[in-house]
Design a protein that fits this description.
This protein is α/β, with parallel strands linked by helices. The chain has 13 helices and 8 strands. An 8-stranded mixed sheet has the order 3-2-1-4-5-6-7-8, sandwiched between helices.
Length: 295
């Protein structure tokens, strides 16, 4: 018989909504934090989800608490502020952080959760809200082997590919490495597409050459709808989030005393776009903004 769990979710946003829906489809009980930043939750309530008024109440009702918030400050806030998750944490309760966070913060968070009697793993996400709704996210997990094996069936409710990166913190580390590559390639492609247009090259020719050569891959296909038809929906990720993630990556490289010169250049582009008033724009629109000289 399939084991079911009582799951609490904090962060029913673009990614969290899909996670929540698939947890319910998997037969698990779900409660979630009622928050102004949530997507519409009528479907979740209709499927048996229960809204709670605080992180403490979510933790009191759950044996697994999943965090799907913006970054490290938000993770620390929902866990440790008055009325937060830690106040309602029962011994053995598992906290799974699916956010994008600084590994140094993750290690501190894990220590505090464990000191309070809980357990912790980081399970950073890749892919987009579309795959989240389809239950086809990629997860990069940092956890002890035994805990990873125990929780994997629950993760499979909303993830297609699940990689065990290593101990706690490794998931967030590998996620930042992944996002640096993905968002760095996005920046390179956006600059190239903008320069191509200024040179009078047909978009279709550019896409054909890149797609059949060294520019082919997932990022190009996410940008393709915008380059072809001005449709940014293939990559629903904002300039502000890109700036945050590359900033986290740069901080991590500094902590590691690793080379970060390329990251500095990528960070500068996203910072310029944000400072120019485009923080809420989806990243594919960098192509048009660069072409028009608005960054």
């Amino acid at each position: 018989m399939k084991e079911t769990r009582r799951v609490g979710l904090i962060g029913v946003g673009l990614m969290g909504h899909g996670i929540a829906a698939n947890i319910l489809r998997g037969g698990h009980a779900l409660c979630f934090l009622d928050h102004p930043g949530n997507q519409s939750v009528e479907d979740l309530l209709g499927a048996g989800g229960v809204a709670k008024g605080s992180g403490r109440e979510v933790a009191e009702a759950a044996e697994v608490v999943i965090l799907c918030v913006t970054g490290s400050p938000q993770v620390e806030a929902v866990l440790f502020e008055p009325g937060g998750v830690l106040e309602g944490l029962a011994p053995g309760t598992l906290v799974i952080d699916c956010s994008t966070a600084l590994p140094s913060s993750t290690e501190r968070v894990a220590a505090r959760v464990e000191a309070a009697g809980g357990r912790f793993m980081d399970a950073a996400m890749t892919r987009t809200p579309k795959e989240a709704e389809e239950g086809r996210l990629n997860l990069i997990v940092g956890a002890p082997e035994a805990l990873f094996a125990e929780v994997r069936p629950l993760l499979e409710c909303f993830a297609e590919n699940i990689a065990h990166a290593g101990p706690v913190g490794a998931g967030h580390t590998l996620k930042l490495l992944h996002n640096f590559v993905s968002l760095g390639f996005t920046a390179v492609l956006a600059e190239a597409a903008a320069a191509s247009r200024r040179a009078g090259i047909d978009d279709a020719a550019l896409l054909d050459v890149l797609g059949k050569g060294g520019g082919g891959g997932v990022v190009l296909e996410r940008l393709r709808p915008y380059i072809e038809a001005g449709d940014p929906s293939g990559f629903r990720f904002s300039v502000a989030n890109a700036l945050k993630d590359i900033g986290y990556y740069r901080t991590m490289t500094e902590d590691l005393a690793a080379e970060g010169g390329v990251a500095e250049a990528v960070l500068a582009l996203y910072r310029q776009a944000s400072d120019a008033g485009h923080a809420d724009r989806p990243v594919p629109e960098l192509v048009g903004l660069l072409e028009q000289g608005r960054v």
